[in-house]
Amino acid sequence: MTPRIAVLPGDVINKIAAGEVVERPASVVKELVENAIDAGATRVSVDVEQAGRRAIRVTDDGQGMTPEEAPLAFQRHATSKIRTEADLSTIQFMGFRGEALPSIAAVSKVRLVTVAAGSSMGTEIRFAGGALLAQRETAAAPGTTVEVMDLFYNTPARKKFLKSPATEFGHVCQAVQRQALAYPGIHFRLSHNGHAVADYPAVPTLRDRVHQVYGVQLVDACVDLQEGAGRFRLEGLCTRPLETALTKTPQDLFVNRRWVKNATIVHAVYEGYGTYLARGHQPRFVLSLWVDPRQVDVNVHPTKREVRFADQEQVHEWVRSRIQASVKPASVASRTTVVSAWSPPQRHDHPVATDGSRDVPGHANLAPDVLAGRQPRLEGVAELGQAYLPAVDQEEVRPLGQIANRYLVAQVGDEVQIVDQHTAHERVLFERLQRQFEAGQITSQGALLPQVVELSAAEAVSVRAHLEDLGRLGFEVEEFGPGSFVVRAMPALFGQGDPQVLLCALVEDWDAWPSTPSMQERYNTVLASVACHSAVRAGRALEVPEMRRLLEDWREAGLPSTCPHGRRIAMRLTIEELDRIFGRLGWT
Q: How would CATH label the architecture of 206-327?
């Protein structure tokens, strides 16, 4: 009888293991760059061809390997990082399992050239499908170069599941950016098909590195964190509450310099913002948390992108309290503004605080001058831009006023309606954009002065891949160099908004698309972002005709109850509900 249980052949074992570690070209880049960092490199260069499908080359100036060590590096579970079981509880290296190189070699053709520190000659080794082909002595510069060619050439089923070149190279960019953020003191370079894509020279601080990767706009919108207590230390940047956005990019988290996904810490960040985070808005952050290695387990995921803390609740509470202390405003103004239909408002800019933030009106009692019947001074943030133009029969809607420069009060028929001006306008614009898109007639508006937008390497890859889609959406965008684009026209409904903010939001929408959505669903997601960024903002004082026009447009749209992102638009009170509230049922 043939045994039903048998030991798998070595080549099958290697390919199974490779499937856990090597998901795509970006996985190879990540593992090779981590090896370079562990080798003490001060300069790391990553060169890829055809988004990594054809070739990946990682060169470093680290300590290199001797002729005896080089072939051992391709044996499974051979490593220089740990020696005993006790070392697993104090891991301070990026790699430690000894799986990366043998896993990569099992599904590609690999050439390694390495020169140990102090040696005059180096070693060259070649592998194909996990088998050693040749080893010889060679001359080279100190350090190590690993070339990975024809990835997944011997596993065609795996190669079939790779995404488009633009998507795969976007993941490669993210892998390099994450390592650059984790190690500001190392110089990283990235090129694609011979063209430089990103260059991050060594800098002294994480803030400087965030400036290099994400640009000055994000840095200026953030507060710095430099906190330490006992076993914990937190460093990085997070956006001020009034600078949060509808997008989550970036939300980079590092634990002991390792980029990870950790729901506990992300939840702690959101809890730290608490009521200062507007509904639907997301904090953007780059945070690096240091924890005693004995209190964190990094050996819980094949790619080491998840960690487990010994005291999860303590980590959560400490991070939450540090975020809260950093983003909490020194004082929160709480005012209510009423705009009557017979007393048009006058606009005033609200004072800017010394930290660059702006106070947003809240929900306090009416000011004495309002109670006395005098015209109140509006404290809301005036928004520059085109007015919401009036042109509607005055009998159709009857605006009664504005609360806190964000909610409109109106009588529509026998109903009293309290309307969120931003979400209502967002829905109106979305309906218009959708109709224009279906008719192939989204109206563009040329910029008086074309604007140059600077994007990160990963964002630039996504925009470059969707230039045709941008054209269909009413944009006119041209490349202007690595990571730079010139915006010559935008959808007319967008007005005078910031094109960089909108493009970043669209990049996140594209990256979030499921693998096989309908074309209409894909564009609806993007149209919703355009409408949101084009809509009148909370904090803008509206003139009475503007209120009337907005309310009438919302009524003509069918009085929808939510914006395209699902946020509530209005609270309605019918005459029957008002009679019940005031005890008038049965009375005349």
A: 2-Layer Sandwich (3.30)
